[in-house]
Amino acid sequence: MPIVPPFDSDGLLPPGDYELSFDELRQSGLVRGGGKQNTDSTWDAVWREHLVGGLEILARQLWQVGIREIFADGSFVGDKNHPNDIDGYFVCDL
Q: How far is the C-alpha of 13 from the C-alpha of 5, rounded, in Å?
């Protein structure tokens, strides 16, 4: 079973958290495409890979200060062909 399930009929992931390494994220349908976007020539895997690169830079900086719970969200985790960015948040102590 894939780590990231396919999008539902509304173009969304099923509710839940999906823990992935950056390598797993890059190989997932969120970057490579899957489902209906496999036949859609506008699915922008190159751009999505670029966004993941930025997320990885941020995550590595957060890891250096002890933040481990980092969540990606927004249109990146839906079936939008070219999301503008990756929304997200992290959990930290004050």
A: 7
Contact partners, residue 66, CB within 8 Å, separation at least 6: 92
Bin 61: left if φ > 0, else alpha if -120 < ψ < 50, else beta.
Answer: alpha
Strand, coil or helix: what is 24?
Answer: helix
User: Cβ distance 87 to 73 under 8 Å?
Assistant: yes
What pTM value is reported for the model? 0.89
Return the beta strands (E) in 1-93 as ranges.
69-73, 87-91
Paired tokens of 23: 């390598």
Work out the mean pLDDT of the chain and round it to a whole number. 92
Taking only the tens place, the pLDDT of each residue in 22-36 is 999 999 999 999 765
Tokens found for residue 80: 């939008």
State the Cα–Cα distance between residues 21 and 27, nearest whole angstrom.
10
Q: Is 90 left (phi over 0), alpha (psi -120 to 50) or beta?
A: beta
